[in-house]
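User: quick one - fold this with flavin-adenine dinucleotide bound?
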Amino acid sequence: MSVQVLTLGGERQTLSDETVEEIREIFRGTVLTSDDVGYDEARIIQNAMLDRRPGLIVRCTGAADVVDAVKLATDRDLLVAVRGGGHSIAGTCTTDDGLMIDLSAMRGVWVDPDRRRARVAGGATWGDVDRETQLHGLAVPGGVVSTTGVAGLTLGGGIGWLHRKYGLACDALRAAEVVTARGDIVRCSASEREDLFWALRGGGGNFGVVVSFEFEAYPLGQVVWNGLVVYPADAAAEVLPRWRDWASNVPDEVTSRAMFWSLPAMPAFPPSVHNRDVFITAALYAGDPDEGRLACRELAELGRPLADMSRAVPYRTAQSALDPLFPKGELQSYWKSVYLDQFDEEAAAFVVRVGQNRPDPKTLVHAPLLGNASDWCLIASVRRPWLVPACGRCR
Ligand SMILES: Cc1cc2nc3c(=O)[nH]c(=O)nc-3n(C[C@H](O)[C@H](O)[C@H](O)COP(=O)(O)OP(=O)(O)OC[C@H]3O[C@@H](n4cnc5c(N)ncnc54)[C@H](O)[C@@H]3O)c2cc1C
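Assistant: Sure. Structure tokens for the protein plus flavin-adenine dinucleotide:
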């Protein structure tokens, strides 16, 4: 069957059976139309609210496939979306009827422990990076969910559990290999195509398709101290300002965040917190776990906790602990966030008010404290996952 693919001008271009076959011949990766097995699996992204159906999906296996996919798009003037880990809540990695250039099969990670460098393919996830770097007692600052894509997170900045010690993911970027809109493959770094390199470090997608990233990797043992103390949500008016004051004065090794949430009745959580509205204070110590235990002990002294789940854990366990709470393609999500230069009393009272009035148990109000190696102060973000079909409040 022929397929129709949307052009930049908004018209539908028909690709005959023969043309689709010719396109398939070009690529080493899979070319999928809506009639193909695997199409639905390939089009699903993290946010279930964005149930889009690309006209054509090219699942690339390497830089040559990406170059040919970009050329296919430019030759035919096709509307394009580039997909890495698929975690964009806004759904910018997918398109209705356009061409999806899908890098999610390109997940290689190569570590040079002597130079402390990690080269990461454009569709890898942070779980892929952590697995390979930790083999050498190294880590690249990434995110807090292991299934998030390296590409989108790095291109957008990237905060995680190491940012107060080592900065954002984009701060650790040393070079990138990029396919431009002309289909050229170029390298950029602090000394080559500096403008492009500057743009990639926080400017988001759209400056080209990054086929590989080269990161500086930092020393981090395989076991870290993970502070995790749960308070009742209605104690937050007292606990949150104390957490803020504590977290603002800890050593650089401590990255801390606070969250209003409702924890499900999962075996990973003690019954005292099951299905309750809670205020969570969490921290990760980027260094010796015994030092971390001492540095984070006050987390449990900010009020009367419901549970103290702090412990030494493998870094990779800490990095994937939240994964089960973010299943792919199941939560209909709407997120918004704001940077605050100062986390003063007014801002603290606002975060408490929003946190204590969440519209749904799955709504997460999240306040990661930045500072030190990461330049800013606080991001207060509200993540609203909805399990019901898209509702008016989300729009
Ligand atoms: C469950 C979850 C947890 C998250 N946790 C964190 C966190 O801890 N810290 C944080 O900073 N952010 C976090 N985020 C936000 C996340 O970093 C962004 O949504 C990011 O854009 C996702 O990147 P991706 O590659 O997975 O997504 P995608 O949706 O695939 O891509 C995101 C954007 O980047 C573009 N893009 C993707 N790959 C490439 C490429 N190779 N070259 C050029 N452009 C490309 C896409 O076109 C799209 O515009 C989280 C998101 C989710 C859903």
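One thing worth noting: The radius of gyration is 22 Å.
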